[in-house]
Structure formats: C-alpha cells, structure tokens
Amino acid sequence: MLSIEVLNIIAILLVVFSLLYFQKTNNMVPLLISFSFFSSGISRYYAVAVNRTTGYVRVAGWDVFVMSDELALICLNLFCLGAFSLIFFLVTIEFYKKKKVVKKVDTGDLFRKFVNKNRVFIILLSFSYFVMLALRNVLYSISFSYGFYAPFASIGSIICIFFIIQSFNKINYIFIAIFFISYLLLIAQLAVTTHTRFSLLGWLIPIGFAILYKIRPGLKLLALLGGGAVAFIGFSILGELRSSVGKSFGELVTQATQRILVSEDSNMLDGFMMMYQVVPSKLDFQYGLNHIEILTRPIPRSIWPNKPSGGYINKLNLNTGGDLEFIGISESMFGTFYVEGGVFGIVFFCFFYALLLSRLLNYFARYEGMLGATLQGCVYAGLLAWFRGGDFAGIFALLLLSYWPVIIFMRRYNSFLKLERRREYYNSLMQQDLEQKLAENQILMPLKPILHSI
Fold first, then answer.
1. pLDDT tens-digit profile of 400-416?
2. Which residue has the higher pLDDT, 90 or 329?
3. d(Cα 294, Cα 316) in Å, to the nearest integer?
4. Cα(6)–Cα(249) distance, integer angstroms
5. For residues 125 and 408, is the Cβ–Cβ distance under 8 A?
6. Please, are residues 111 and 369 in contact by the beta-carbon 8 Å criterion?
7. Neighbour tally for 58: CB within 10 Å
8. Are residues 377 and 441 in the same domain?
C-alpha cells in the first residue's frame, strides 16, 4: 500500500502530465480524471485525515459504517489505481491508434443548411424541458431516478437552442439571436436548483468548449480553468443554499469557497469507504450486474414486482424510509467498478471505458467546427457526472434524460448528411456522363461533313 506522500506525488504528476497531454492533443479526459482524483481523493484525505478541518461523512442511522484514516488510505490507493489505469489505457490506445487525418463528414455550410431547413423541428426539441416536466409523474412510476432526473432535459434544450444560434451568420439575424439567447437563459434560470446542480455544468461545459474551439490549446486551457473555477464556485454556492437561508452573496461565496477547500461537494472518498466496508463482506461482487441494471431499470415494478433493488445501499436495505429514503453517498465510478469485481473490476472496466471514450471522442471529431466541439464537450460533462455517481444505472438515466434532445438532433442530422452525400454522388455521375457525351461530340463533330457526303 502506498503512503499518502507517494499518492500525493502521483496525483501531482498525473495533473502535470494531463495538462501537457491536453496542450498536445486537445483531449480533456486525462485532465478531468486527474483533477477529479486530486480534488475528490487527495484533497479530501488531507482535509479530513491530515488537517482535521472537517470530518468524514456521517449519516444518522447508518451505524454499519466505521470511518477511519487507515480505511481512507486503503480506499485512496484503490482510487489512485482507477485514475492511473483509466488515463494509462486511454493514452496508450490513442498512441497506438493509426495516425490518420480525420475526414470530416460535414461542413459549416451543410450544418447551417440543415438548421435552416429544420428550424421548426429544433425549436420543438428545445421545448423538451417543459415536456419532461409534464411527464414527470409518468417517469416516477417507472423509477424514482427517472422522475427525479426529468428536469435535466433542460441541458438538451439549451444545447439545441445553441445549435440554432450557431446557424446565424448574418447581422440582420441579431434580434432573432437575442430572442433565442433570452430563451436559453430563461430555461437555465428555471432549471438550476440546489438539487439539480448538474443542469448548470451539463450545458455550460459543452457550450464553453465549443466557443473556445478555435483558440490554441494554451489559451484555451487558461480560459477553461478560469471558467471552470467560476462554474465550480457556482456549483458549491448551490450546494450551500441547501442549508443556508437569508445569507448575503458575499457570505455564500465565502462558505462555498470553504466547501471547496474541504471537498465537501467531492466526498466520493467517503462513499468509497462506505462501499468498501460492505462489499464483499455483506454483499457479493456483482460481476457486471450493475451494468445489466441499465436495461432493467426502465421496467416498472407494476410489471415486474420482484425487480431487484438498485445500488448497494438499497440492496442492503439501508434506506429504511423517512429522512433516509433518498440519501446516498457516491462511491464514484471507480467504486462502481470495484463493486463489479474488486481490484480486477477496476482495471478491467478502466480498459473497457478507455476504449469506449476513445471511439466516442474520435467519432465526434468527424464533425466540423463548433458542432464537433459541442459534442465532445457533452462527453466531458457526462464524464464529470459519471465520476461523481455511485448508482450506475441512475447515472445512465441522468445522461440519457439530459442529452436525449441532442441524440435526436444528431440522428436527424446524420440522415440529412446521408441524403446530401447520395445527392452529391448522383450529381457526380451525371457530371461524368455529361463530360463523356461532350467528349464524344468533340470527336464526331469534325467527321460529320465526311459522313454526310458518304
């Protein structure tokens, strides 16, 4: 087991390497993972076990968990294994991938043509936030997480509005652009609450990444760090508002900063410790069942009354109702991997998702300009939510309900691109046929008088 001093050095090296890697490749995944490990693991350990500025998370009634510094260090080592493995596998996969120029499947003109042609359809998609609110009770009947995550459709709504704004390339559209921006801000203001804080980061990261896509990596990194710091403080302020009433904005900022310093909003190390105490001692390794739960979660209990409970907290009947009914401390995505198969589960699923992330980012890189950058930004925002999440099927539901308008938008756009490629192909065939006929005419025209005399 590595000491905290060695783990601290590893964390700093991972952050430095990830910064250099981002400047060279424009890939933010290693940076997000190393930053998350540093803030949720190392900083949390120092705040609790070393500096004693705060205590471990404790929930009344959950007396099965005994929190200690020794256990925290064990879990921090597993945390480090997950962060290092995911970064290592991703960088290795990208390194050994064949170096080739990414062929773009679209152009800026095609994107604007599609948006202008489908503007009514996209505007309807931008109302998905209000549609999901209307269907919230129906989603609650399927699963609590689906109903709770319904307001996160605001993320997809805002990104669809952003797609419309991207198509405005003439100065006389400025008033229409102002209208859409106002609508965007309205949904953002309605959706962001203390309990739906991800609805802020879920659209802010993709749009910010898209706006900065033309800036060279060094300046982009500074802008992203500055914007990320502001967003992170806003995220903490929303967390502080859960228990603070009647305080001034300055007091909220001060307390939010204190929350950041003690990693109160990034206490996944505490959740990892809780999970580690009951898996596999009280609950066997799941061996992939948490992933299968993604498919079974949408099945209502009215159809399947004996459907197994989701998450280790529910499986062990620790949520007994009352104030504890919806309480859960996240063990992070690496904790979820541990539940699936221990140390082997962490390494295996880090490799699996490194492959998936690599393919997904390279697939989105095929799209031109701000569109491709927005889609890659959705991956980064989703990765942050996924890192924080402990209920794997619940996080999948969160991302699905957040980005389904974007998925529908892209399906329609890809169909449009196929038609455009087909039309371009037939036009090229007609052009070749026309050129061939012209060539034949150029050969026969000089011979026409001779043929006529014969």
1. 989 999 999 999 999 99
2. 90
3. 19
4. 39
5. yes
6. yes
7. 11
8. no
Helix (H) or strand (E) holding 257: helix 249-261
The Cα 173–Cα 165 span in angstroms is 10
- What tens digit of pLDDT does each residue of 283-337 get? 899 898 888 888 888 887 778 888 777 777 778 777 654 444 444 578 889 999 9
Q: Is residue 385 part of a domain?
A: yes
Q: What are the residues whose beta carbons fall under 8 Å from the beta carbon of 150, sequence distance 6 or more?
A: 132, 133, 135, 136, 139, 401
Burial class for 410, CB neighbours closer than 10 Å (0-12, 13-18, 19+): middle
DSSP helix/strand/coil, 217: helix
Q: What is the DSSP letter of 102?
A: P
Do 331 and 71 touch, CB atoms closer than 8 A?
no
Could you list the residue range(s) of the whole structural domain that residue 222 is in? 192-390
Is residue 289 a contact partner of residue 295, using CB atoms and an 8 Å limit? no
Amino acid identity at 339: V
Give the chain's mean pLDDT: 82
The reply to whether 375 and 264 lie within a common domain is: yes
Decide if 40 contacts 11 (C-beta within 8 A).
no
**Which residues make Cβ contacts (< 8 Å) with residue 222, sequence separation at least 6?**
none
Residue closest to 258 by CA, chosen among 270, 274, 276, 244: 244
Contact between 105 and 365 (Cβ < 8 Å): no
> For tokens 């269907």, what's the residue?
135
State the pTM of this model.
0.85
What DSSP string describes 323-360? Answer: GGTT-----HHHHHHHHHHHHHHHHHHHHHHHHHHHHH
With residue 115 as reference, give the H or E element that holds it: helix 108-117
What is the C-alpha to C-alpha distance for residues 155 and 377, in angstroms, rounded to an integer? 12
Number of structural domains the chain divides into: 2
Q: Distance of alpha carbon 437 from its chain centroid, rounded?
A: 54
Question: Both ends of the chain: CA-CA distance in Å?
Answer: 101
Residues 285 and 430 in one domain: no
